[in-house]
Amino acid sequence: MNDNPGPASVNFRFRSDNVAPAAPEILRALASANEGAAAPYGNDEWSALLQRKFSNLFEKDVVVFPVSTGTAANALSLASIARPWGGIYCHELAHTYVNEGCATEAFTGGARFITLTGRDCKLEPTALAETLRRAERGARYAPQPDAVSIAQATERGAVYSLDEVAAIGEIARDASIQFHMDGARFANSLVALGCSPADATWRRGVDILSFGATKNGAMSADAIVVFNQALAEPLSYRLRRAGQTWSKMRFAAAQLIAYTEDDLYLRLAATANARARRLGEGLANLPGVQLVAPVQANLVFVAMREEVIEALAATGVRFVRQPGGVVRLVTHFDCADVEVDQLIELVGRLVSPAGNASGHEAATKSAVNSSKPAKSAR
Q: How far is CA 218 from CA 170, 347, 351, 376, in A?
């Protein structure tokens, strides 16, 4: 954990949880797995142990496929449940639809996203049910309903309640379509919900889960968790074709085992969530700063005047800027309270005195400008 950040610590630290290092426990697991030889392509002892560990974790026999990225997890999961002529129902701002370079379309061979609106990037069950009711089943000129996909937590940092997940699961079952969950921040949502992985997924109707770990302490290791066993074998062929069957799979498996061992993933996520709450509460108390989404996971969305946003960027702080004067800030397990307080103080100097150049200059002097802005990150 970083308890003593340097003067430029706030510059990139809130851009994304992708900026965080790997957790020490993960690095130790990698070092341990690096001793001696092991069978390749998932035939090693770590990969076998991973299947048992995750089956215990989810209280059900599951099949786990480690993958290198969340995009691979999402696109290949959806390719396993959507035909080339199929329709995938999701929110209009879903990461799978907006930010993954048409990977799902590529791996499905042409399946179409059918987008819906919803507050805080949540699908609304009633709207989903009505849209499915109007679907032109059997019409060869129209996409055929195949899947519904939600993000947990959502792209606005909101967490679906267990009842909301169950409602979508029931709609999917009634419509005879599959239910996918994009769990890039699955651990953060579990901490917010205070429930078990089983209660948050298959017990509410989820068929397949993109299990995120990289954003929360792992090093290039996410996974696909298959609850519907009929999907597992065809998915294994898709993974091989996509180059996602690692020759040295033990290193991915070792990370995922360590990630869930002794609830490490929940402890890391709890730290990130706590920092987000602290940041959200601190910013919301500043004049002219308003929270525009609930802080339930580790994402904070605030609205500020455009000149304040420009001044904040000029100090070297990097963030994701959204339309309407909204800024996205993200916390992570390696984020310290002092860093959160530094950022709150920095924004406070920019908004008071409001729009005063001296306030901007003072804030700018308090931060060290970084050399280049970070690339877009989830």
A: 33, 31, 37, 20
Position 352 scores a pLDDT of 81
Q: What's the pLDDT score for residue 11?
A: 81
Residues 6+ apart with CB under 8 A from 272: 17, 188, 216, 297, 298, 331, 332, 333, 335
pLDDT tens digits for range 98-156: 999 999 999 999 999 999 999 999 999 999 999 999 999 999 999 999 999 999 999 99
Q: Taking the complete model, does pTM exceed 0.70, yes or no?
A: yes
**Going by C-beta distance under 8 Å and a sequence separation of 6 or more, which residues neighbour residue 216?**
17, 185, 187, 188, 259, 265, 268, 269, 272, 332, 333
The overall average pLDDT reported for the chain is 91
Query: 3-state SS of the chain?
Result: CCCCCCCCCHHHHCCCHHHCCCCHHHHHHHHHHCCCCCCCCCCCHHHHHHHHHHHHHCCCCCEEEEECCHHHHHHHHHHCCCCCCEEEEEECCCHHHHCCCCHHHHHHCCCEEEEECCHHHCCCHHHHHHHHHCCCCCCCCCCEEEEEEEECCCCCCCCCCHHHHHHHHHHHHHCCCEEEEEECCHHHHHHHHCCCHHHHCHHHCCCEEEECCHHHCCCCCEEEEECCHHHHHHHHHHHHHCCCCCCCCHHHHHHHHHHHHHHHHHHHHHHHHHHHHHHHHHHHCCCCCEECCCCCCCEEEEECCHHHHHHHHHCCCCCEEECCCEEEEECCCCCCHHHHHHHHHHHHHHHCCCCCHHHHHHHHHCCCCCCCCCCCCC
What is the C-alpha radius of gyration for the chain, rounded to an integer number of angstroms?
21
Residue 335 has pLDDT above 70, yes or no: yes
Residue from 83, 95, 104, 150 nearest 328 by CA: 95
CB neighbour burial string for 168-200, b if at least 16 within 10 angstroms, e if fewer: bbebbeebebbbbbbbbbbbbbbbbbebebbbb
